[in-house]
Amino acid sequence: MPILDRNTLEFVSRSPEQTRRLGMRLGSMLQSGDLVCLNGELGSGKTTFVQGLSQGWGSLDIVTSPTFVLVNQYQRMDGNTLYHLDAYRMQNALEAEDLDLVQMIDSGCLVVEWPENIREALPGDCLWIDMKYVAEESRQMVFKPYGERYIAILAEFRRAAFGG
Ligand SMILES: Nc1ncnc2c1ncn2[C@@H]1O[C@H](COP(=O)(O)OP(=O)(O)O)[C@@H](O)[C@H]1O
Ligand SMILES: [Mg+2]
To answer: Suppose 134 and one of 41, 43, 98, 138 were both cysteines; which one would form an S-S bond, judging by CB atoms 3.0 to 4.6 Å apart?
Structure first.
């Protein structure tokens, strides 16, 4: 699928708090069935973003890096589940098959760190976010929607976060 350039949103976050706030905005818009892919090197701010995202989504739990457990689950009062997968240590899509990602997306929202590692196992439609270290407290974030649902979410996110 081609990158929908007219819909791409670029932003430089100037602090971890700002990254968390953006995550909160996005989290508050997610619905069951949504997939968010967070791509970027170690320290680029992926987990920091998920901390805000889970809060905005409605989780009462604190987010920690799931690097050693692969998947963390967060529950909401209404019974919804947010799955946070860190594929850093995964070699390929075959390993991901055991996780039943489809079931996760069917029954809740899924956020994936290191999505490149398991790309073939993920649905094509998603909100893809590239994160990059710029300086000590600065991180570039590029939001790319794949599919109508994510074009809509990103348009709403852009309005809510930047008023544009
Ligand atoms: N603008 C920023 N956005 C996100 N994190 C930042 C920012 N500036 C500094 N940081 C710091 O960078 C680190 C990012 O770590 P983390 O979110 O775990 O990254 P990743 O999950 O991509 O490895 C944290 O220590 C965070 O406090
Ligand atoms: Mg991380």
So the answer is: 138
Whether 116 contacts 128, CB under 8 Å: no
Question: Taken in order 63, 55, 16, 114, is the CA torsion positive or negative?
Answer: positive
Model confidence at 70: pLDDT above 80: yes
- Domain of residue 149: give its range: 10-162
Number of domains comprising the chain: 1
Ligand 1: which of 48, 113, 139 to mutate, judged by most atoms within 8 Å of the beta carbon? 48
Kindly state the percentage of the chain with pLDDT values over 70: 92
Q: Does position 143 have pLDDT exceeding 90, yes or no?
A: yes
User: What's the predicted TM-score (pTM) here?
Assistant: 0.93
Confirm whether 5 is domain-assigned. no
Answer whether 123 contacts ligand 1 (Cβ < 6 A): no
Strand partners, 132: 140
Determine the average pLDDT of the residues in 98-117.
92
